[in-house]
Structures are given as structure tokens and as C-alpha cells.
């Protein structure tokens, strides 16, 4: 995509706002301080993972590691006890509770073929990540 002069490819790296951005020699540089943000679109089960206190999230991770689905099952009841997440405002507490129960059931039933066990561990890791964001008061994008 760079211009060729005398058989050699010309390209340069712009410094400043666009570090490492390759531009075409002589072409206008787009910019002006535009901030681009990328957010992951989560499915309903993944969006239902509650933001719990850090110690409870670590316990759920530990339980999910050794007994697939148990930590997710406990996190479903944490929703009823006041744990928050982004889906509660859209669907309500009962729906989020049942989504977490469904995730726990899926993890338990598919643990025999290792899929549920791996899913359970990842679920626990997401709980810990969300809890650490909660403790640091950072935006919750996992």
C-alpha cells in the first residue's frame, strides 16, 4: 500500500499520536485525536456472571476447578444476595439467577467430556477478574 519510487517501496512510521502506524508517503494522515474503543459482545450466559467480592470469587474459582459447576452454582445464589452485573438492569435478578443455574448445569453435565470442566475453570477465572475490577473500581469489560 506504500508508494513506490524508483522500484523501492516507501513507507514511514508516524510518531506522536499514532505510534507505529504505517502511512503512505504523501497521503494525508487521518486523526485528530479520535479514540477508538472495542468492546466484546458477550452472550447471555457469559454476561450473567456476577461481580462478587474478591474472596468469594476466589472460592468459586477453587470450587469450579475441582468440582465443575459448584462455584457457578454458588455464584447464582450470590446474585440473589446482591452481587451485581450488567445484565440485571435488562433482564432482572431472577432471570440472571436462572442463567447462572443453567451455566452450572451445563458445566456439570458436560464435565464428563472435559468441556464442562474447562468451561467451569474459565467461568471461575472470569469471576476473579470481575471481582478484581470491582475492588479497583475499573470498568468491567471481560
Topology, pairings included?
Layout: E1 4-5, E2 8-9, E3 11-14, E4 21-24, H1 44-47, H2 54-66, H3 70-80, H4 88-91, H5 93-109, H6 115-136
Antiparallel strand pairs: 1-2, 3-4
Helix pairs in contact: 2-3, 2-6, 3-5, 5-6
Structural class designation? mainly alpha
Shape, per Cα inertia axes:
globular
Number of strands: 4
User: For the residues shown, what is the average pLDDT?
Assistant: 78
Low confidence ranges: 1-28
What is the H/E string? EEEEHHHHHH
Helix percentage range:
40-55%
Q: What value does the Rg take, in angstroms?
A: 22 Å
What portion of residues belong to β-strands?
5-15%
Could you explain the architecture of this structure?
The strands form two sheets. A two-stranded antiparallel sheet has the order 1-2. A two-stranded antiparallel sheet has the order 3-4. The chain has six helices and four strands, in the order E-E-E-E-H-H-H-H-H-H. It starts with a strand and ends in a 6-residue tail after the last helix. With 142 residues, it is mainly alpha-helical. Helix 2 (54-66) runs antiparallel to helix 3 (70-80), helix 3 (70-80) packs antiparallel against helix 5 and helix 5 packs antiparallel against helix 6.
Amino acid at each position: 500500500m506504500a508508494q513506490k519510487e524508483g522500484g523501492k517501496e516507501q513507507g514511514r512510521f508516524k510518531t506522536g499520536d499514532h505510534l507505529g502506524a504505517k502511512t503512505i508517503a504523501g497521503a494525508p494522515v487521518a486523526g485528530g485525536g479520535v479514540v477508538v474503543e472495542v468492546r466484546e459482545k458477550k452472550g447471555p450466559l457469559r454476561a450473567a456472571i456476577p461481580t462478587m467480592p474478591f474472596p468469594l470469587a476466589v472460592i468459586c474459582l477453587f470450587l469450579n476447578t475441582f468440582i465443575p459447576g459448584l462455584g457457578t452454582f454458588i455464584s447464582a445464589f450470590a446474585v440473589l444476595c446482591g452481587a451485581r452485573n450488567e445484565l440485571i438492569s435488562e433482564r432482572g435478578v431472577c432471570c440472571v439467577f436462572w442463567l447462572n443455574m443453567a451455566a452450572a448445569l451445563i458445566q456439570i453435565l458436560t464435565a464428563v467430556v472435559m468441556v464442562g470442566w474447562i468451561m467451569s475453570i474459565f467461568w471461575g477465572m472470569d469471576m476473579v477478574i470481575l471481582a478484581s475490577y470491582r475492588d479497583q473500581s475499573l470498568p468491567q469489560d471481560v
